[in-house]
Amino acid sequence: MAKTIFITGGARSGKSRFAEELAQQFGAPLCYLATAQALDDEMTERVKRHRLRRGDAWQTIEEPLHLSHALARCDGTGKAVLVDCITLWLSNLLFHYEERDEDAEACIMEDVRRLTATLREMRTPVIVVSNEVGQGIVPENRLARRFRDIAGQTNQLLAAMADEVYVAISGIPLKLK
Amino acid sequence: MAKTIFITGGARSGKSRFAEELAQQFGAPLCYLATAQALDDEMTERVKRHRLRRGDAWQTIEEPLHLSHALARCDGTGKAVLVDCITLWLSNLLFHYEERDEDAEACIMEDVRRLTATLREMRTPVIVVSNEVGQGIVPENRLARRFRDIAGQTNQLLAAMADEVYVAISGIPLKLK
Amino acid sequence: MAKTIFITGGARSGKSRFAEELAQQFGAPLCYLATAQALDDEMTERVKRHRLRRGDAWQTIEEPLHLSHALARCDGTGKAVLVDCITLWLSNLLFHYEERDEDAEACIMEDVRRLTATLREMRTPVIVVSNEVGQGIVPENRLARRFRDIAGQTNQLLAAMADEVYVAISGIPLKLK
């Protein structure tokens, strides 16, 4: 199994930039696995900015839902894969399962287990970016509370299996493991 | 005075699990002092899950408001006491005093001082679990802002008197003191 | 260039108190550069409490918007300057530019660059206090999301240029740099 590196942090904490720097240390070419869906102008703009920043060494693949499959397909195609980010993937899954009236939490945790299984079998190192979302006041919105629970549980599972774990605070990475 | 260990972290950051592991290192029997009130299905479910996870070594006591008294009654009855969690206790107190039209902040900070005094006199080690609630956007709701202030001040007082302090991030405890 | 120390943390995390302790190690007199505008009772009360705590060694200057100019005017007038806090300054700027229908984000980031330029030229050491606001659930309010982005970017720029960086958690400072 190749190395898994897990990076978490708040919004605009510099986690994506730090993840890109770590990935570049593995050499080129690199695979960028984006979970963002550019559904509105705000997100389209952000996706474009990030892509410009990364430059030519990167191949970008967009996959909002089937992350394990996409990750497996990236295996062996470059020096490292960067998954950015888990929190948007979980959010995409939550809306996907909610729309289909399925037990979203159970389905998502099953998808997360599939992801950790895939990560364990990768021959290419993977850098996984996630977000801290549970350090504010308890949200009044029940869906937001469920999302916060799912995101926290997922972060715990990924950090537990990762070889290295960092939290970015004000742009500065702090190594936790 | 026996050791006080203070553990903070965001929602679903693995702080309760880490607290239970620390407590078990003191041996059995152990006392679990729960501040949660199972007022709705969401909370009942969570309380049940946590109790199942802990298993037979633990005696569970539920006390939503009079935490110092309950803690003093636990003294000497086991190898360690786990208080989970301070944030729910503060939330219970806030609603309790608000309903009675009392100066909630003053009453609560008096209760917190009573708690730290009780902690200083315990012969049994106590592990106290709390939450980080102040790292999001300023809440629009005034009561939420007051709660955030009370929770932060209480965390400071408990961390200052504790012998060891940890923050859990994505399931990984980081020692602060 | 004199030393720049950057301190971040959540609400009521003990960051102002720690910043004051650090400042006092430089000796007296000290300059306190407050960005708070006491527009309501809640804030007036807080400003008054903080001022009482600081005591006589401090000269207080209030400047909600033109922080770089105020900072430059403080240069050389004391042993250290404490700026408290960046997040309120950014919030003041956001409302200021929004009211004038200007491109708030661009204007603010220009002000932030001016601030870092001023910090680089200071002969007096400066301690800058900011806030972590991006570790909760994504705010539903678009202005709050923009503010969160601006605050995170600003924290990154200030932490990158600072000689020392700390995050306060439950009153305990953790050195990041």
Automatic annotation (TrEMBL), chains A, B, C:
Q: Does the keyword GTP-binding apply?
A: yes
Q: What is its EC number?
A: 2.7.1.156, 2.7.7.62
Q: Known CDD domains for this protein?
A: CobU
Task: List the Gene Ontology MF annotations in alphabetical order.
Answer: adenosylcobinamide kinase activity; ATP binding; cobinamide phosphate guanylyltransferase activity; GTP binding
| List of catalytic residues | 50
The record lists GTP as bound by 9-16, 34-36, 51-54, 62, 84
Q: Which GO terms describe its biological process?
A: cobalamin biosynthetic process
- Tell me the enzyme class: transferase
Pathway involvement? Cofactor biosynthesis; adenosylcobalamin biosynthesis; adenosylcobalamin from cob(II)yrinate a,c-diamide: step 5/7; Cofactor biosynthesis; adenosylcobalamin biosynthesis; adenosylcobalamin from cob(II)yrinate a,c-diamide: step 6/7
Q: Which InterPro entries match?
A: CobU/CobP, P-loop_NTPase
> Catalyses which reaction?
adenosylcob(III)inamide phosphate + GTP + H(+) = adenosylcob(III)inamide-GDP + diphosphate; adenosylcob(III)inamide + GTP = adenosylcob(III)inamide phosphate + GDP + H(+); adenosylcob(III)inamide + ATP = adenosylcob(III)inamide phosphate + ADP + H(+)
Q: Which UniProt keywords apply?
A: ATP-binding, Cobalamin biosynthesis, GTP-binding, Kinase, Nucleotide-binding, Nucleotidyltransferase, Transferase
* Family that this chain belongs to: Belongs to the CobU/CobP family.
Q: What does this protein do?
A: Catalyzes ATP-dependent phosphorylation of adenosylcobinamide and addition of GMP to adenosylcobinamide phosphate.
What NCBIfam families has UniProt attached to this entry?
PRK05800.1
Q: What is this protein called?
A: Adenosylcobinamide kinase
Organism of derivation: Oryzomonas japonica
